[in-house]
């Protein structure tokens, strides 16, 4: 999986961080210390890590991922990361 999207609510910038969905790489999610959860009322699952986004971004960089975009949407910060083929 060369792309990953992570997000957090601005008011809780020290965590938790959403790091994936139900189809994400299980090994990577385990490396990040993320747990698969499903919020009441949602029809999808997501991986949530207790770490702050900065820690998650640092850990993903160690695995070869680079931030390619960042946006703020309402009260949410979202980062898109890409892992170049040479790191596969």
TrEMBL record:
Gene Ontology molecular function terms on file: GTP cyclohydrolase binding
A single GO BP: negative regulation of biosynthetic process
A UniProt-annotated Pfam family: GFRP
Coiled coil ranges: none
One GO location term (cellular component): cytosol
Keyword Membrane tagged: yes
Presence of keyword Cytoplasm: yes
Subcellular location: Cytoplasm, Cytosol; Nucleus membrane
Keywords: Cytoplasm, Membrane, Nucleus
Similarity annotation: Belongs to the GFRP family.
Protein name: GTP cyclohydrolase 1 feedback regulatory protein
Source organism of the structure: Oedothorax gibbosus
Lineage of source species: Eukaryota, Metazoa, Ecdysozoa, Arthropoda, Chelicerata
């Amino acid at each position: 999986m060369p792309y990953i999207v992570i997000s957090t609510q601005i008011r809780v910038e020290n965590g938790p961080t959403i790091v994936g969905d139900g189809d994400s790489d299980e090994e990577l999610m385990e490396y990040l210390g993320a747990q698969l959860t499903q919020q009441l009322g949602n029809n999808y699952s997501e991986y949530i890590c207790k770490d702050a986004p900065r820690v998650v971004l640092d850990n993903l960089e160690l695995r070869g991922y680079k931030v390619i975009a960042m946006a703020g949407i309402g009260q949410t910060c979202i980062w898109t990361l890409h892992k170049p083929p040479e790191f596969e």
